[in-house]
Amino acid sequence: METLEKTNNLGHIPAYGELDDPVTLSAEKKFREIFGSNTKVFFVYNGTAANVLGVQHLIRPYEAIVSAHTSHMNEDECGAPEKISGSKILTIETADGKITPNDIKPFLRSIGFQHHSQPKVISVSQVTEMGTVYTPGEIAALTTFAHKNNMYLHVDGARIANAAVALDISFKEMITDTGVDVLSFGGTKNGLMFGEVVVFLKSGLAKDFEYSRKQSMQLHSKMRFIAAQFNRYLSDDLWKKNATQANNMAALLASELKQIPQVKLTQKVFANGVFVVLPQQIIQPLQQQYYFHVWNYTTNEVRLMCSWDTTEKDVNGFIDALKKELNKI
Amino acid sequence: METLEKTNNLGHIPAYGELDDPVTLSAEKKFREIFGSNTKVFFVYNGTAANVLGVQHLIRPYEAIVSAHTSHMNEDECGAPEKISGSKILTIETADGKITPNDIKPFLRSIGFQHHSQPKVISVSQVTEMGTVYTPGEIAALTTFAHKNNMYLHVDGARIANAAVALDISFKEMITDTGVDVLSFGGTKNGLMFGEVVVFLKSGLAKDFEYSRKQSMQLHSKMRFIAAQFNRYLSDDLWKKNATQANNMAALLASELKQIPQVKLTQKVFANGVFVVLPQQIIQPLQQQYYFHVWNYTTNEVRLMCSWDTTEKDVNGFIDALKKELNKI
Amino acid sequence: METLEKTNNLGHIPAYGELDDPVTLSAEKKFREIFGSNTKVFFVYNGTAANVLGVQHLIRPYEAIVSAHTSHMNEDECGAPEKISGSKILTIETADGKITPNDIKPFLRSIGFQHHSQPKVISVSQVTEMGTVYTPGEIAALTTFAHKNNMYLHVDGARIANAAVALDISFKEMITDTGVDVLSFGGTKNGLMFGEVVVFLKSGLAKDFEYSRKQSMQLHSKMRFIAAQFNRYLSDDLWKKNATQANNMAALLASELKQIPQVKLTQKVFANGVFVVLPQQIIQPLQQQYYFHVWNYTTNEVRLMCSWDTTEKDVNGFIDALKKELNKI
Amino acid sequence: METLEKTNNLGHIPAYGELDDPVTLSAEKKFREIFGSNTKVFFVYNGTAANVLGVQHLIRPYEAIVSAHTSHMNEDECGAPEKISGSKILTIETADGKITPNDIKPFLRSIGFQHHSQPKVISVSQVTEMGTVYTPGEIAALTTFAHKNNMYLHVDGARIANAAVALDISFKEMITDTGVDVLSFGGTKNGLMFGEVVVFLKSGLAKDFEYSRKQSMQLHSKMRFIAAQFNRYLSDDLWKKNATQANNMAALLASELKQIPQVKLTQKVFANGVFVVLPQQIIQPLQQQYYFHVWNYTTNEVRLMCSWDTTEKDVNGFIDALKKELNKI
Which residues pair with B157 in a beta bridge? Predict the structure, then answer.
C-alpha cells in the first residue's frame, strides 16, 4: 500500500507500460535478475489470465492442454481456457494433484491422429491444488518429457512463493534450471492487491504476446500500478516473509489437527494448504465462523488455506471452534 | 445414387434450400411426419456439425455439456465442441457408454457457483460408442431429470437407425415421446453419401439456427442433394433395411466369436458394434486384412463395426482370418 | 489512494465480492442510487472488458455490433470484440464520431437474410472518440430506434463524466431516462487506478453475467479494491470535479489554438478532447515534448486530450512549445 | 453424376480420405500436376469453409485479414471469419471490387502497435464480387507487397475457372507463378454437387491443416465423393467448357443490355457476372421471373450471374422479359 502511494497517480507517466515507464522497466529487470536474462515478462490482471494466456500463446485451438483433473485451469475457471483458447483440456486423475510423464504417455497415441486434439502443453500447479509440491527433479522430468515429445511445460505459480519456501530453493532453481517454458507468477494470494505475471523463460516464446494480452482484455493502461507492487514484493524478500508465515501457520494447524482423533489429514502438508476430513455435522457450523471450501462432498474432506496474514491466534481460534463443535456431536 | 441422379444438377432450383426448393421442403415434411409436427429440421454436412451445432445453439460459452467420457463429442472431434461453442465438456466414466441421472447429480453442485461452468446440456449417444442402447424409459428418465434442472437433452443419433431396429420401436417413440430436445439424425454411417440432420423436437429451440449453421460453415448451397438422400432414406423403410442388415451381421459375428475360447466379448451386443478382447499378437496382422480400431491399448479390446453393406461372407471371412491368426500363436 | 489505504489488504473480507463484502455492496448501492433501482452493476478490470463483455452478453456470435468506424471498440481493441464475442462489427463512416438512426437503417435489410450477421447491438461512445457529445435527445432517438427493431443500445462511457459535465446533466438523465440498455462506466481516464463498471440498466439483461465475467478472466478476487475506488469517486462529486478540470483545460486549449493562424481546429470542443490540424514538420518535435496521437496521417490532424490532472500551466506550456516550433518553420 | 455413380458407395474404401483411398490420391495428384509439385490439397464441404479455414490457418486471432469491403468473406458469410478465426477483417472501399498494394499501405501503420489487429493476410477474389478480374501482374504485385511486409496472399477462387477463361491462362500462371500462398478452389458454382478445395501453394503452410479441418467440422468421412468430382472436373477440360459457356452467356447478355437505353451497365464484363442499373419499378416483377440479387438498393444496381448451364435461350428469355417490363412503365 505504501508502495502504491509512492507510485501515485499524479505524474504524467506513459500509459500501457509503453516506452520508458520507469516503474515497469524496473520490475521487468527484477524478474530478469531472478529468472535469468532470457526471461520476458508481461503483467496481467489476475491468475486466470496468467494461466490461460500463457498457455494459449503456445498453442493453436486443435492442440490440447494436459493437466491434473484437479487443476485450477480445469476446475475453477468457468471454462475460460476452452473459450479463450478454443482448446481441449485432457485431464489426469491423481491422488495428490501431481502428474508424471507416465500419466501423460497414453495421450501420445493421439499425435498424428486427426480426430484427436493434439497434446501440446503440459500444465502443472506449484503448489498443487492438493497442497503438494513438485521437487525440482520432478519438474525437470516433466520438461524433459515434454520437449522430447515436442510439447511445452507450463507452471501455474499462483502459490509459487509457498513452494519456494517449502522446498527452500530459489525461483531460478525451481523454474529456469528445470527447463520450464512459461510460468504464471502469482502475488495476489500472497498479499498483493491485483496483478499477476506471465513469465516466458525463453524469450522466443513471448513473440507477439503483447497482442494476445491486449486482445484478451488484459492490458492495463496504468501498468505501473501492477509493476510497482511486484517491485516491492520481490525486494527485501517480502514474498518469502509472507509465504513463510502462511506455510508456518499451515504446519501449526496440521500439527494441532493431528492431535484430534475425530479428524483425519488426507494430504501431507508441504505449504499453506491443509486437507482434512471432518465429521459432516460440524462443517456448516464451522463455515459460519471461518471461510473454507468443502473439497469433496462424498468424503467430507475440506480444504483449509493459510495466508500471509494468518496468525497463530487465527489458528488457535479455529482449533478451539472445531473442538467446540466436536463436543456438540 | 439413383436418387441423386433424379435430383440432378441441371434444373434452376433456388440455392441454399431457400424459398420453395421442393426437394428440401419434401424432406422436411417427411421428418415432421416421423417426429411430429413441432419438429424443425436443418441439413448440415456431417455428424460433427450436427452434434456441435445442435448443442451449441442451446448454450452460452459459460454453460457446459455433460456426456460420457467415451462420447464421440468428447473423444473424436479434435476439440470441435470446445472451439465452436467455447464451452467445457464435463465427462462421466461409464462401464458401457451409458449415463444416468445419478451420474449427473454431482455436477448440479456447480449451479450458481461462478467459478464453474454451468451444466446445461446432457448429451447421450444412441447407439452409444460402446455398442449399447438406451431404452425409451432410460431416455425419458434423462429428459425428466434435465428439464427439472433447467437443462436440455441432446441425442447423438449417428447410429439411431441401428438403435431403432435393436429396440424395434419408431423414431417417434424413442425421441419425441421421451421428451428429447435436439437430435443429430445420422445417415452417413448407414449408407448415405453426405449430409446429416439437426432435428429440434421443440420448434422454439430452433429459433435463429439458420444463422448458426451459416456462420459455422455448414450451409450447403445445393441443399437439395442432401435433402434428396433423406427423402429416399426415409421412404420404403430403406433406413430400416440397412440397419437391420448391420445389426444382424453384428449378431452373427458375436455368436461366432462366442465359440472361440481365446477371445472374450466385453459388451452385450445390441446393435451393429461388437467389442472383444483379442490376444495382442494377432491384432496387427488382422488389421492388415480388416479395418477396425483398437478401443483400449491396455486391455487389447477392439471394436468391430458392421455396416449396411456387411455381408455374411464378410463376417465368415473375418472369423476365418481370426482363427488362422490364432493358430499361428 | 487514501481510499485504498483504508480499504486495506489486511482484513479477512470474502473474496470475489461474494456474499457480504461491505465495500462492494456499498458501491453497488451507490450505482443504484445514481442510475435507478433496476440497475445491476459488475466490476471488471478495464474499459476493453467493460465494452466487450457488456455487449457480448446481449448477443450470439451470428449477431452484429453496429458502431461508428472510429469507435474505440472497432479501432483500438486489437480485435477483442471479434475474438471474445465471435461477432462482426458493422461500421458507419461519420464526420464527428456520432451515429444516427438513419445511419443504421441500411443494415436492417440484413435482418432475416441468413448470409448476413444480424444487427443486434448499437454501440455509441459518450464522449465520442472525436470529442463530440450526444445530447439526451439523440441518445433517446437511438434507443427508440434500437428497441423498435429488436436491438439494444450500448454506451461506451469511458469518458462519461466529461460528457455529463459538458451537458450539465445527471448520469440518470443521460442514460437511464433515455432508455440505454447497458453502459460501460469508466473511471480510469478520470483519475482511478484500475477498474471499470458494466452497468445494466434493466436487471433482466444482467442474468448470468457473473459467468461471462469469470470465463472472460475479469473477476477480481479482491473486488473491494475496485469497489472502494468507485465509492470514493462517486462521493462528494469527485468525478465531477475531475471532469470539470479536464473539460475546462480543453476549452482553454481550444481558445488558445484559435488564436494561432497556422493551426486549424477540426471538431467543436465539447469535453476534454481537442482535434487540430498542425503543420506536419512540427508534429514530431512536439511529440518529443508532449504525449499525443496523430489522428489522421493524411491530413496531419492530431488529438490533444486533457485529463483531470492537466493544469493551466500544462496548457500554456504546450501552447508555448507549439509557437516555438512554428517559429522554426 | 455419372462420375459419382462409378465412385459408388458400395466398396470398402477407407474413410476420411486416409491411407490409400485411391480416388482421393488421384485427385490430389491432379492438383499437383496443375499447380506444381509443392502443392498441398485439402477437400472441404463448401466455399465458406475453404475461405475461412485457408486464411485462419495462416493467422492468430490478433492478426487481421485485409480485403475489399465487397468481398464475400466480409459481406456474405454471416460473420464466419470472425467467429472461426477470432480475427478482424480490415476492409477497403473499391470501385470495382479490386484492391492494390496502395490501398493496403495505410494498414501497415498498425504493425507493432499493440492496440491494433496486426494485418497478416490479404484476401482477394478472382473473379471479384463485382465481376472484375485481376491480371497476373496485379496478383504478382500483391504477393510481392504481402511478402515484403511479412504477410500472405489468399485468393478466393469460387469463380476461378471463369477468371482463367477470361484471361485465357492456366491456373498455374495465374496462381502459382504469381506467388499466391493459399487458394480456395471452387467448383460448386461451376457445376459440382458439393465440395471445395483449400490449395496451399507452399507445402510448409499446410502443416497441421488436417486438424484445423477436423476441428472446424469440415472433414468428410467419405472423402472420395468430393475427390471424384474434382477428378472429373479437372479432366478433359470440363471446368473450361463450363466456365466458357458461362462467360459467353454473360458477354451475350451484356451486349444485349447495351442496346437498351433505359438500362446502364456499371462494370466492364470480364467473366460471368453482369452489373446493371435497372429502373426501380421493374426489378421486383423481373425477380418473380428470374432469380437475381439487388446489389445496391440506393442506385437500383442489380447483379446478373450466368452459370455453366445458362443457355442462349435463357439470355434471350431474360432480355424479352426485361423489355416487356420496360414497356409497361
Answer: B185
